[in-house]
Amino acid sequence: MRYCLPDTYNVDTAYAAPDLLSALKADRIDPVDLQSLKITKIDPKKNELVEIFDILTENRLINAILHLDLSYNALVEIPDGLFKACGQLEKLALQGNCLTHISDNLLADLPNLRYLNLSNNHIKHLPNTAFLELKNLISLDLSRNQIEKISGPVFEPLSSLVTLNLAHNHIRCLSQDVFYHLVQLQSLQLNNNALSSKNAFEESIFWDLYSLQWLNLSENQIESMPEKLLRGMPYLKRIDLENNALSCLPYNFFYGLCYLEHITLTGNKLERLHPDQFFGLQKLISLHMGTNKIEHIPASLFLHQTSLKLINFSKNRLSTFPLTSVEHIASLKTINISDNPMDKKESAEIEACASKLPMRISV
After folding, report:
1. What is the C-alpha radius of gyration for the chain, rounded to an integer number of angstroms?
2. pLDDT class of 89 with cuts at 50, 70, 90
3. Maximum Cα–Cα distance for the chain, whole Å?
4. Phi and psi at residue 239, to the nearest 5°
5. For labelling, which of 116, 197, 253, 328 has a CA lying 20 to 30 Å from the CA of 7?
6. How far is CA 204 from the centre of its chain?
7. Spatial CA neighbour of 174 closest among 158, 154, 157, 146
């Protein structure tokens, strides 16, 4: 009696390692059922992982696998050549293990791989040739590891990459050429690292990221921003910079970002904004500036905004807010200026003016 899925071949086939070994040895698995395979409860001490793939290879079933999930198995190391017969594999999940490194040849036999998840491991170093053959990869998740530095052309072969997640590592330094050739990249997550302004990255580090739409640099230690850092990303829609140590921004920092929709600068040390800080950002929808040290808002700050829906300047040092500066924004729904040192008279005047406007204001 052969094992077959009851209704569909598009759901995961999940096996505990002993069950899979038993099913393989008894020849109870149809190759089509292995298109999506999740292997659980592997005991590395018993060498079960190697044994499973030896049997799969011998039975010529491994070529049928498109999705392979080896996540959360406490794997410390994966031997080179393990995926040699997995030429059709498109999705590989290795998250939640105890891997400390990726060998040069571990992924060399996976030319069709499109999704790779290595998050929640203990990886400290990425060899330059780790992803050399993964020209079709579109998603790479390396978040929640222990990477401190990324240098050289480690990502250079990934010309099809769309999302790259490097969040929650210990990254202190990025070489200038680390993102070269990632012209298809749309999402770059660098939040929750140890990046600072000193020697962390060069002004031109992101200039090759022509297609980028989301850049997340929040939860780092960045004190200042290079003036032209964002120049190479004309289609950027979202930038997250909250919880850094920024005390100021170049007045033309957002220059040329005509598609930018969301800016988050909450939790910094910003003291002032230039009157032209947001010049040209006509598609801006939300602006989060809470928990800073801003004392004054220039009357012309929002002159070029026509799409804003939310403005947040809560927990700053504002003594007033120029409502006349936003009267022309018909789309504006919410203004939050709570927890600022405004006196009762000023707050009452703002609330009185706000009652005549089609928006909600928190004072």
Report:
1. 26
2. very high
3. 83
4. -135, 130
5. 116
6. 20
7. 154
